[in-house]
Specification:
- 23% of the residues lie in helices and 38% in strands.
- It has 365 residues and is of the alpha+beta class.
- It folds into two domains: 229 residues, P-loop containing nucleotide triphosphate hydrolases (Rossmann fold, 3-Layer(aba) Sandwich); 122 residues, Beta Barrel (OB fold (Dihydrolipoamide Acetyltransferase, E2P)), CATH 2.40.50.
- The strands form four sheets. It has a six-stranded mixed β-sheet with strand order 6-7-8-3-9-10, sandwiched between helices. Strands 13-12-11-14-20 form a five-stranded antiparallel β-sheet. A five-stranded antiparallel β-sheet has the order 15-19-16-17-18, with no helix packed on it.
- Strand 17 and strand 18 form a beta hairpin.
Length: 365
């Protein structure tokens, strides 16, 4: 049995349906992420798990217990918000001790528990410091330490890194991964940042318009998007309008104007005439001044119309020319591995591109 089961949960605000018929299961010990754009319903779903909001339909079970009628303070879980909600006038030890004092535990038991928790989150020397004296990562650990006092089954994190700059956010991601592994408690994490979700999670639920679009491991979400929204939302992706002209087990022939016939992969049998898009990641596209294509590769010529230098990589926008027709642009990515100079090609250069038939995924929803 899963630790958390969300069964057909719906939440409406007037005529607006923020969450529609969502079903999810989260296993014990998972780092599970709810990912999606602003307004997709992920925070509303988190609030219903926490008990701050109630579903209009559906049920939520934690360890087999129905939570819907249980008030937030009675649920065996805690929520950590973006600002960590630490008391600035209390020391680290007193911040951690606060919920135990509110529960009227004895001071000796509190002191033992605070020491144990500080050791667990590697802050054993920080008990006498104040929040203003701590780094961002240390504040995060204090907030998590306070949430761990009564050993909750579940820790909910609502975009705790959203306000940080890129470098600090990356450091904090490593902190979170290590801490979750060390304490072994299930995390449910809300974010709109695709890179963050891919870096942190054991599994991801991608949401849009109140619905779950796909659930899976980060590599499966990225490599095998279930539909057009997921392919477009996760990372950078070429989305090429296409129709099926022939179908074999695992292999399709697509018609992509003006490219003509293009080989692609599909895990399921599809009817001829099905319309959709070929989702093709830029890093899967080979680009060079000349390419000798392998038998299983799609191969085209074109002109570099734009390039975006991003330090470690450069993204090339190649306008394809096929039988005299042009107008379709495909993005191709190259690492900047040259010892001198970053760009392999310049705007206006004639190039060739190629990709294996199974590098692209045909999606039609």
């Amino acid at each position: 049995m899963a630790l958390l089961e969300i069964q057909n949960v719906t939440r409406r605000f007037g005529n607006f349906e923020a969450v529609h018929d969502v079903g999810l299961e989260v296993e014990a010990g998972e780092f599970f992420t709810l990912l999606g754009p602003s307004g997709c319903g992920k925070t509303t779903l988190l609030r219903m798990i926490a008990g701050f909001d109630a579903p209009d339909a559906g049920r939520i079970f934690l360890n087999g217990q129905d939570l819907v009628a249980t008030p937030p303070e009675k649920r065996p879980l805690h929520t950590i918000f973006q600002n960590y909600a630490l008391f600035p006038h209390l020391t680290v030890a007193d911040n951690i001790a606060f919920p135990m004092r509110m529960a009227k535990l004895g001071e000796r038991a509190i002191a033992e528990k605070v020491k144990q928790i500080l050791d667990e989150v590697r802050l054993s020397e920080m008990g006498g410091r104040y929040p203003a004296d701590l780094s961002g990562g240390q504040k995060q650990r204090v907030a998590i330490a306070r949430a761990l006092v009564d050993r909750p089954h579940l820790l909910l994190l609502d975009e705790p890194l959203a306000a940080l700059d890129l470098k600090l956010r990356e450091q904090m991601q490593i902190e979170l991964i290590n801490l979750q592994r060390e304490v072994g408690i299930t995390f449910i994490y809300v974010t709109h940042d695709q890179g963050e979700a891919l870096a942190l999670s054991h599994r991801i639920a991608v949401m849009d318009a109140g619905k779950v679009m796909q659930v899976g491991r980060p590599e499966d979400i990225y490599e095998f998007p279930a539909n057009r929204f997921v392919a477009d939302f996760i990372g950078v992706c070429n989305l090429l309008e296409a129709s099926v002209t022939a179908a074999e087990p695992d292999a399709l022939t697509l018609d992509i104007p003006p490219l003509g016939k293009v080989g692609a992969y599909s895990p399921q049998s599809l009817p001829v005439g099905r319309h959709g898009v070929l989702a093709l990641r830029p890093e899967k596209v080979r680009i060079d001044s000349q390419i000798v294509a392998a038998p299983q590769e799609n191969h085209f010529s074109g002109t570099v119309r734009a390039l975006i230098y991003m330090g470690d990589i450069t993204m090339y926008h190649v306008e394809i020319t096929c039988d005299g027709a042009s107008g379709l642009t495909i993005k191709a990515l190259l690492p900047n591995s040259q010892a001198r100079g970053a760009s392999f090609f310049e705007v206006g250069d004639r190039v060739e591109i190629a990709w294996r038939y199974d590098a692209g995924r045909f999606v039609y929803e």
